[in-house]
Amino acid sequence: MSLHLPARRVATTASAVAGKPSLHLQYLLPRTQRRNAWFNWSRKSAQKGSENSPFAQELSRREREQMIARKNLIRTQGTSIFDEEIKDSERAQREKEEEEKKPAAATGMLGTKVKEHMERAEDPDPRWRVRFLKKKVMQMVRNSDKPLTREQRIKLTEKEHVSASPHLPTSTKKLVHLSHQIVGKTVDEAITQMRFSKKKMAREVKWELELARDRAIAAHGMGLGAADGQALEKPKKIQTKDGSWIEVRDPTTMYVDQSWVTKGPWRGMRKHYHGRSRTSAMYRPTASISVVLKEEKTRIRQHDEKVEKEAKKAPWVHLPNRPVTAQRPYYSW
Fold first, then answer.
1. What is the rounded distance in angstroms from the CA atom of residue 247 to the CA atom of residue 191?
2. Model confidence pLDDT, tens digit, residues 280-304
3. Could you give the angle at the alpha carbon of 183 between the alpha carbons of 177 and 185, nearest 5°?
4. How far apart are CA 124 and CA 118, in angstroms?
């Protein structure tokens, strides 16, 4: 008879028997121990089995239903099912009344258009205003006999307008050249100069001149002589402050009497890198240009006053006849 066994099983069994020592020599081999800690293994397995039971699932479902029913009961326990809506409306009404009671400044209303409020803001002390007006009337009556001073007469007969530009992104060193270029010229000529100038800030100065011209016309009525028929029949030749001679045909023509430049705040900073790991801060400057516009009446008056002063001046004498002073009765050497 032949024994039919798989060749792989026979080979494995033979190798295991051949490599395994005898029973009485096995205690000489090194042994390693491995321990596993299974705490409460039996209790967890019992709980897991109890949770999966249909009876436990039924209990947990009932508990959840009872909890939901209890919450619904607490939520609808009021005298009416519309209690929450009523309370919300009452709360909103109460908040609205509190906001109305707050002052206007607290609620963000900075002003009011009520007539009484406007009068109170514009005239907070009417009695003081009446006293002040009485005082000014008394001063005017008292000084009515006195002649007007030179400054008062100039302010009554001549007009001027002062305008300042916003801070421009440039320095005073660059903007002052444009300021020197427009001073003493008529407004139209100054605008023409800025129009054809290659400087970057020339267009800003041109815009400021146009704005100042428009405001002077609208606020003070300057430059309207030609429209009102105030032009001179014969042009008058006058000398300006810088010594140049010009002809004036319209005494209300506006010109740039003064122009100056002021510094503004720094608009930024950037680092400038040097050798040996050193840096310095470079600040970007701003500048503003201001102009004073006047009419040609002012230059005509200044020229006439200069001519009159020169006419009143006595002739120059080389050795005037006056007493000798500061003489000593002894020699100074």
1. 19
2. 999 999 999 999 999 999 999 999 9
3. 125
4. 10
Cβ within 8 Å of residue 127, ≥6 positions away: none
CA distance 29 to 31: 6
Q: Give the containing element (helix H, strand E) for 12.
A: helix 7-19
Identify how many contiguous H helices and E strands the chain contains and give both numbers.
12, 7
* Residues 1-37 pLDDT 10s: 455 555 555 555 555 555 555 555 665 666 665 555 5
Based on the number of CB atoms within 10 Å of its own CB, is 271 exposed (0-12), middle (13-18) or buried (19 or more)?
exposed
pTM listed for this prediction: 0.56
| C-alpha–C-alpha distance, residues 21 and 17, integer Å | 8
Reported residue count of the chain is 333
Quick one: tokens of 155?
Answer: 């302010």
Which 3 state secondary structure label does DSSP give 225?
A: helix
- What single letter denotes the amino acid at residue 307? V
Q: What tokens appear for 321 in the block?
A: 């006849």
Beta-bridge partners for 259: 291
Going by their DSSP bridges, the two strands 160-164 and 236-239 should be labelled as: unpaired
Are the C-beta atoms of residues 287 and 168 closer than 8 Å to each other? yes
Measured between alpha carbons, how far is 226 from 251 in angstroms, rounded to an integer?
Answer: 9
Per-residue pLDDT tens digits for 73-97: 766 665 566 667 777 788 888 888 8
Q: How far is it, in rounded angstroms, from Cα 275 to Cα 252?
A: 61
The tokens describing 100, both together, are 């109305």
CA 130/CA 51 separation, integer angstroms: 96
